[in-house]
Design goal:
Layout lengths: L11 E6 L2 H12 L6 E6 L6 H12 L13 E5 L5 E6 L6 H5 L3 H4 L4 E6 L13 E7 L5 E7 L3
Parallel strand pairs: 2-5, 2-6, 4-5
Antiparallel strand pairs: 1-7, 3-4, 6-7
Helix pairs in contact: 1-2
Length: about 150
């Protein structure tokens, strides 16, 4: 596992994982630092671990149900015992801010919530400027790189 202090700040992190389990663990630790009404914008090619990251984030938030990719239904909503709601969106097929707004997130999952959007660039105008941007890629040695920074550019 990469040498990383999980107790550090997540505002600007570059981390390498060797397995899906490490990705989930890293995301779980990240989840514990999130405040209510956080927005996490995920990007990366197919197979880079975006859904695996959200599964770990869900574990860290306390989601008890199985987290699955929302590719076919666009959005999945998970309740947490402490009243928080996790909203997981696959924006791959969304083509406009109106498509995102038509998901009615405010009505379906009122505050407090954590919104995680895969393929966020498709709805970039809807992403709050203080969102966490999570960029994922696969290195030549097959490890997965996760970069987190606070603020969308």
């Amino acid at each position: 596992m990469s040498d990383f202090n999980f107790e550090g700040e997540f505002d600007n992190v570059d981390f390498l994982t060797d397995s899906a389990e490490q990705t989930r663990l890293f995301a779980s630790k990240f989840a514990k630092t999130l405040s209510d009404d956080s927005f996490v914008a995920l990007s990366g090619d197919l197979g880079t671990g975006k859904t695996t990251f959200v599964k770990g984030l869900a574990e860290g938030l306390g989601v008890k149900s199985t987290v699955k990719s929302p590719s076919f239904n666009v959005m999945s909503v998970y309740e947490v015992e402490n009243g928080l709601t996790l909203v997981h969106i696959d924006a791959y097929r969304l083509t406009s801010p109106e498509d995102f707004e038509n998901l009615l997130i405010d009505e379906i999952a009122p505050s407090p919530r954590c919104v995680c959007v895969e393929w966020w660039s498709n709805i970039a105008d809807c992403v709050p400027p203080d969102a966490y941007e999570v960029s994922m890629s696969i290195e030549e040695d097959s490890r997965h790189r996760i970069k987190i920074r606070r603020g969308i550019s």
